[in-house]
Structure of Chorismate synthase:
Amino acid sequence: MSGNSIGKLFTLTTFGESHGPALGAIIDGCPPGIPLSEADLQHDLDRRKPGTSRHTTQRREADEVKILSGVFEGRTTGTSIGLLIENTDQRSKDYSEIQYTYRPAHADYVYDQKYGFRDYRGGGRSSARETAMRVAAGAIAKKVLAARGIEIRGYLSQLGPIAIDPDRFDWAEVDQNPFFSPDKQAAEQMAEYMDALRKEGNSVGAKISVVASGVPVGLGEPIFDRLDAELAHALMSINAVKGVEIGDGFAVVSQKGTEHRDEMTPDGFLSNHAGGILGGISTGQEIIAHIALKPTSSMRLPGRSINQQGEAVEVITKGRHDPCVGIRATPIAEAMMAITLLDHLLRHRGQNADVVPPCPPLL
Amino acid sequence: MSGNSIGKLFTLTTFGESHGPALGAIIDGCPPGIPLSEADLQHDLDRRKPGTSRHTTQRREADEVKILSGVFEGRTTGTSIGLLIENTDQRSKDYSEIQYTYRPAHADYVYDQKYGFRDYRGGGRSSARETAMRVAAGAIAKKVLAARGIEIRGYLSQLGPIAIDPDRFDWAEVDQNPFFSPDKQAAEQMAEYMDALRKEGNSVGAKISVVASGVPVGLGEPIFDRLDAELAHALMSINAVKGVEIGDGFAVVSQKGTEHRDEMTPDGFLSNHAGGILGGISTGQEIIAHIALKPTSSMRLPGRSINQQGEAVEVITKGRHDPCVGIRATPIAEAMMAITLLDHLLRHRGQNADVVPPCPPLL
Amino acid sequence: MSGNSIGKLFTLTTFGESHGPALGAIIDGCPPGIPLSEADLQHDLDRRKPGTSRHTTQRREADEVKILSGVFEGRTTGTSIGLLIENTDQRSKDYSEIQYTYRPAHADYVYDQKYGFRDYRGGGRSSARETAMRVAAGAIAKKVLAARGIEIRGYLSQLGPIAIDPDRFDWAEVDQNPFFSPDKQAAEQMAEYMDALRKEGNSVGAKISVVASGVPVGLGEPIFDRLDAELAHALMSINAVKGVEIGDGFAVVSQKGTEHRDEMTPDGFLSNHAGGILGGISTGQEIIAHIALKPTSSMRLPGRSINQQGEAVEVITKGRHDPCVGIRATPIAEAMMAITLLDHLLRHRGQNADVVPPCPPLL
Amino acid sequence: MSGNSIGKLFTLTTFGESHGPALGAIIDGCPPGIPLSEADLQHDLDRRKPGTSRHTTQRREADEVKILSGVFEGRTTGTSIGLLIENTDQRSKDYSEIQYTYRPAHADYVYDQKYGFRDYRGGGRSSARETAMRVAAGAIAKKVLAARGIEIRGYLSQLGPIAIDPDRFDWAEVDQNPFFSPDKQAAEQMAEYMDALRKEGNSVGAKISVVASGVPVGLGEPIFDRLDAELAHALMSINAVKGVEIGDGFAVVSQKGTEHRDEMTPDGFLSNHAGGILGGISTGQEIIAHIALKPTSSMRLPGRSINQQGEAVEVITKGRHDPCVGIRATPIAEAMMAITLLDHLLRHRGQNADVVPPCPPLL
């Protein structure tokens, strides 16, 4: 119920600032008996970790996660799971200049207005550092879901003006380049584009897609906790996200009914414009979501802003930053999808475990 | 916490099926002392009411709402407000054909899978009838917000292929045509387009925009209950919504950082690409959101589907239905925006009422 | 999350004032497929209904409940269930005298302070009328639980100075007298005592006990949503309750460890001092709870108080009232026990449905 | 919403097992700008710490708490506060004998049934170690409340057969003896009694009382989140609690209305049988609650039980344990009272900050 918590049965609560001693999380409601180790979490954290390529933030974090509770003899106990990542590489001095300045397109101004003051170092709580905990919790959720045949994979659909070509789509490419691009050719173009962008001192946006397969029919709690509404919540809560689509998303605006509807036959659905969710409930088809990430707000190019006294100032953000946040968002989006799906799997089971549908599921 | 509830401090819980005796709602957490009457609610309900033009469902509902509690001597008491609308015009016989059939792109199939069976008449709980209660609750929220100078207005941005022209934008036009279009010329094109669509027996999607002005800075509860995440949740929970954008939405994907950022001066922000929300917190600028609505699933044009036995069938939906859901969604989107903003206004006040920011708000 | 809501998966939200047009409730999360009719609810409501004996309030209410949604062809659909009871016998004129007066030991004063004003007629929202909805919702929960072999029964343990004699305990007596007393002899003494009390114009307290049998082991969510903590919450939320005990309750203060502990053998537990809950989780034994109800605040005997201007006044409550609230609380306590147990049954199932314990349950 | 979380606006979520690496907590919703340091928390933790007298567990824990986030330059930021206490003294070997045995009156059996297995060392998650985090969070709440003139103090009312004498009540005595007894003479009797108990190898129960003064009128959210109901929840959630009373508690059963009611005069209330709460809302008087704690389950005296195979066994708990849990519960009960009051203070302010009551509060 608090702002730092998400989920109803499977819940994630987090803490931690960019330059504080540590980031942490408490995961509650995880089914017991699931094999779990720090290595399971570390894998996904490493995918997200800054410093892995020249295209991401040059801040080197070990991002080593420790499991402090909720796991015994290698399996989840069903009690709350505590996670901790110690911050080891903060370089406070990079940010001291902007202690009294509001960086444009950052949360500096609104945090000061909301709370009266803020931890100004590196964005404090508003920093993208907190996403490490989302990824760790997501890794737990993914493990539970995987045991049920549910798989979640994400990829970069578009970086600035460069869109992937669906005809060159190859899942195997996604982890082979620093962009999570399933299109090798596009990845090469993106690398060049990013180099130019870095020289320019600018940044650009991105579009990420996440796909969940093997999801059983029936997940989602109408009318307000529809699965798509909860996914939208979870995905929009990621730093820098400005749009969420399910299935065909905004393309449906100009679609006719006959074009949009996913007809059914005894052998299955004939299409998936709906993105796997109808009436707020999963159909058993792949769940497909897309998010739009705005260009990073930290740039070397100067911007006009004000300081705490309300005086006009020019702001230049030196230090280490991502020229494209999108590059790191793929594992985060996967994590949020996983957390939401697991929560709904448990909620559906809680209320409806005795249900016998009139016919077998289509998929 | 349950699926039929939304909000943390200001909460809305609803019930009611398309063909049941009544729709109802309980609104909790409304600040006391607010003047409120049934007329306040009826105004917004009438804007949503079917049968008001040839372009909407020909089902005639009185949609007369009664306030059953929580108001005394014309003012809210602070206790829970019960609302009731009796269903008077259902025409059950229109739907009996599809009792054992799953209409494509409807929730029939998923409800049977999730719950084991369903009220098949008119979509049951999955019907858009339930939105009447959202609008009624939204009217209450709007009233409370209006007393604080916060105004919420929506409009149709696009109907199928017809987009409004920003240069012809006029708020006064919105309530002058059945489309909520702020562009009179576009409204005329839409009318023709809809007539053709109705003859064809098809449907089309729409894009709705909602704007909240006068919102104070500071609303939103990072990191998971960010204001944009909660708006996305509330808006995506509306029947037929497949996408949500805040501010520039998916346009940010190809924007550069220098283009996207809203610079600040002592006289205010220089732009509003962010749509009024930064770091998940309101900036004091207009909050701008857009939603994409899929084409109505009920159509006269036949579609392939299956029945409860898993046999292939052809489905034709006779009876009354909307060729474009978007025409009615504007008041619903306004309502969800209002409910979310009021909830956050109360939550922010609860935690931070003592805060004195270091400088006055920019707006 | 709001004050008028209880439960996480199986939730109850209510509205309604003593002298408003109606009382209502929304029950969410009820498993689908359960046979349910208005008669099921009416039975428990009639047990609670005022006017059934000379010992209870002389206000005659039909207390006829209507089910407005969530039930189709005689079974629950899994969607939200709306309930309505219209208030038919209010007699506003009985209370107009105390419009500006604060009755001692009532909520008049605190409601005016909290909300700024109140519906003064008959206690408004603070009136015990709202408990009708708890009983109706409890009847639904009881039905779901009964299908799983869980039974909930309550009785009056003590009325003023008259305690029941455990040696004369007979469940069959409980519904044979207006007190819910399992001890016939005590019931006769209570009747005499109550007649004297009524003549005196005074009131007295009571102690109610509730027993749930057939509860499976494993319900309860440590550490904060322990089953006993949630039962305490649900029971203490009943109007006039000032104390809650589980099992031996306050008797444990002077018990030694060897006396208190419920030893186990291969044939079962040897005692039940714990009242069926250990470590916040059900053991499979009978769950036993007791509540203490304060004497009714409405009395003919004058009391000193103040009015809205802060002046000293004398208050005499005329009109119809209960000389002992306890007489009506038994079905309410049963209802709150049922609602809590069902919520936990679903929550436990949601998270732990796959668990295989190392040995069969003891019971 | 999860079992390991409590509170709506001011929330506490915890993790940590008796023999895990650490205990932790996340506190969310704390108002910003409150001065806070580790020393503030350590003070209350030291009051609770085992090993401080011969009468408590001989397990020596540093119980040193670290604040990992949510505090900047000595003040709370309004973002989530992470706390950590590392476990340093566990002595696993003390518990290995009972790995496959169910200790009577412990949670061993129910945890195995609920989750399929458990961390058997020292009670795992069911151990009283977790209360350290409640106390730490309570210290934060107390600080915020103290700034508003609200003070919370607890004391031991009764240990086994030894009750304090109200005529010898002295608040200054409470922190002068290891029992939190306000009656010096009783404390001496308790010491002798405890020595005998320890020799016997047995344990005994206790009754703790908590008093909150300076509480403003108006806290509590009827009808389900009444302040007394939420206090009952919070207090009953403490390990070993079997009963909760507000004000006169179970004594009200035999009180007449004229005896129980707290009459009002222009100078204030004439008594406080209600314990500071009426209609579920604080009156402004002292809030008084009492809890009953059962005798410690860990004893040297053998008890009959079963093992995981269902065979009869005899259980002797060696190692370090509390012969009377009550001795340590006083700071824990204070903490739960503080957490609940702060949550309600924020909730009330959120909804009702604009309320102007018709007259000034009585107190």
Q: What stands out?
A: Chain B touches chain C at residues 1-5, 7-9, 11, 13-17, 20-24, 26, 28-29, 32-33, 66, 68-70, 72, 75, 77-82, 84, 114-119, 124-125 (CB under 8 Å). The CA atoms of residues 220 and 281 of chain B lie 5 Å apart. The longest strand of chain B covers residues 151-159.
